[in-house]
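Example A, followed by Example B.
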Amino acid sequence: MQVVEYTRRAELLLLLVLALAPATAPAQTPEPTVIRLRDAIGDTIDRAERDSFDLFPNTADFQYAAVLALPGPEFFARVTLASADSTRNIFFRIMPNDLERIRFLIDNHGSVAEQQRTDSTYAQALASFWNTLEGSPLRRMPREPFIVQTVPQAPTRTATVGEQEPATSQHRYDYTLLGTGLGSLAGGYVGSRVGIDYVRSQTKSAVDACGYSYTYTVNVYSVNYPVFWGAACGMTAAGSIVGYMIGDGYDRKALPSQMPADEGKSWRTCCAIGSVVPGILLGTGFLLVTGIKRYGKLEGDYTEIDNDPDGLTILPMALTGFCITVELATIGYRIGRAIDRRNAGKAEAKRRAPGH
């Protein structure tokens, strides 16, 4: 009887284990899905498309690649490498902003190639992007095994360069500042030439430090305010608008800049501050040289403007001098920023070097 009782208990225990087995089985690993980058490429990037769009330029023995998505914020590029006698897969981790930048490169590959040829800083930034993306290849994805499934993507219209939102405001700033300076220079010169007229000569008396009396002749001028300020303000505004439009065109062709994680700001700050002093000296010198004679319109050693007692007609020259000061400070900032980025690139390369 005792043996029969043990047998029944064993049978019940076996049935209980079999009943609970499906509930305790490990959850199935989520299957990755293929991300369709653009209609121009499709689901898979082959060698011809890789060379045509300059994708993954640092990966030797590239055969083809696909971008995979798993639950979570990251994506992975599965790249198949083909050597003379074998093939293997490697994986690159891609963040969402990296994926959008790759799509931007595909959509605007023509303007991107032109920008690389004409702007060395742009080319360096793009090279840094690919170096960072391809710098740490993985042998496998975090979750395996997997069966690739294709997820269709709605057709995406390729935006033209003129339709996309500007990726930066650097060129708008630079060209607006340059246009304002040139406009104030031209406006002040034209305003002085057509708006300031000679009226008469006036003899004045004075006493020198030794008590001797002497006379001197003063050339007196008058200002036609509507003509003077119309030319000065109109040409300054026109220069600013034209500069902004030119800069906006360049900004719309530029890639979004990516700042390295460890990029400092010490050099750009120091260079900008250091450039302010020579900028002030040069801007003030320009004001003194051009303002006293109103761009050479006032002739003679002693000149006066009888209806401009406050000297407001010097403002266009002052604005040009101010633009010169700001321009020099901006140049210093740009130089410092280039040094900061170069140092950040060296630090990134050192960190990715073997043994670090």
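Example B, a separate protein, is given below in the same form.
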Amino acid sequence: MATVRLNPNVENFIVRMDWADARNDVPGFADELVRTYEDGKLIILKNAPFRIDYDLLNQVSVPKNPRFQKLSDRFITVPKLYRRDVAAWMWQTFADRPLVYPRFRSEVQRVSAQVRDFIRLVFRDYRFLKTGVSWRFTPTHLESLHLDYFNPKHDVDYVRLFINIDRAPRVWTVSHQLDELILRYAQANPVDALQGARTHDVTQTINHAMLYPLTKLPPEETDRHVIEFEQGDVWMCETRLNSHQILDGHRMIATDFYVDPTSMRDPSKRVRTRIERTLERCHKRADAAIAIPAAAGPAGASVRAV
């Protein structure tokens, strides 16, 4: 089960839930999970109902290459062999193990279907415009601390679910959430440019001003929780709200579900609306000349386990 080390300078927005508790009331448990997700929490879900052949999946590794970092299940099951890079990847990965690929392909299809069925079950009232499942088989180390900055063609929100399928832990750090980061940004910067800006422009502004500079600093010297996700651990969070960084990891499954925001349980909790409310708070605080705490940065604070 995931190990969490909390930093006292960062709000504890990490919530543990146990799917075993849904045994007698799946709709009730699902409603609680959706409310918690829409509140912007990072949910660690114990006993998630996924059956996964980890030994098989751990036989596959992909060299570090941005083109192959995030592979859709369709890419894996229907590879475009007319593309030279795809054909080379398939040859390098499976040429000496021809019987592995059919099993691998079947497992990707089966697990992807489980993940889609689970999200549709839990978020049963949501209208999904896209139900993407991506697979990661490339080693990742010391990714930038960031908020995600998607730029979709439509006005959407997201359901993000992650599963560590690697034998080794996937290590994340997480810092302040978007609302708090905007408030801290406003202490030293004018926020008028953020008013009406597109969501991904707001998150990119925060990334460059506040998060990227912390990437290479030790987590214990900055405002960051540290989470180690073991093999089989499942977690969920809106990654535009929760700043995060991969310190280490290899194989993982992730979802990229586009949501019609009007179908959310509480559309007022969507990311765009949260940004607007926070900017209103910034203006009110500025008008009242109320001081905002110092910007996120080296804190020298200890962490504690939970």
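On Example B: DSSP finds eight helices and 14 strands in the chain.
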